[in-house]
Specification:
It is a single chain. This protein is mainly α and 136 residues long. The protein has 6 helices and no strands. Helix 2 crosses helix 6 and helix 3 packs antiparallel against helix 6.
Length: 136
């Protein structure tokens, strides 16, 4: 019973998490100027935000969503190493400069892995807890 209730509300739960994380990311981008939260925690949160967004659209999709998001984020990061925004002619447009990024960092790859690992672990712990919970 509890699992079926979770499944029927899954889009709303992930949607609420997505909106909350998006709000936090905007606050971090606008107001935080430090050496940890913005560069590291922000990268951890952005992949969790992407996972929640995709789960909002496809709540019963692949169980390897976190891996797919990690691979996507890694491709974007490696693209920064090769300056792909300039190849696309988008590096002079501020919106795309921020969206696509401009600086490669191996530490970002670690942050993406941590964020995707957190999403995968939390999602699977919640699902396994709800599946094992006895119904009355």
């Amino acid at each position: 019973m509890a699992l079926s209730i979770f499944k029927s509300r899954r889009r709303w739960i992930y949607g609420a998490l997505f909106l909350t994380l998006a709000f936090v990311e905007v606050l971090v981008a606008l107001f935080v100027r430090d050496a940890f939260v913005r560069p590291y925690l922000g990268d951890v949160l952005i992949v969790i935000l992407l996972c929640c967004f995709i789960r909002t659209l496809f709540p019963k999709g692949t169980q390897f969503l976190a891996l797919h998001v990690f691979l996507f984020a890694s491709v974007v990061e490696v693209g920064q190493y090769f300056n792909y925004a300039a190849w696309l002619g988008l590096d002079s447009i501020p919106f795309f400069h921020v969206l696509l990024g401009s600086t490669f960092s191996a530490a970002d790859l670690v942050c993406y892995a941590v964020g995707c690992g957190v999403f995968f672990a939390v999602e699977n712990v919640v699902l396994s807890f709800l599946e094992k919970k006895p119904t009355a």
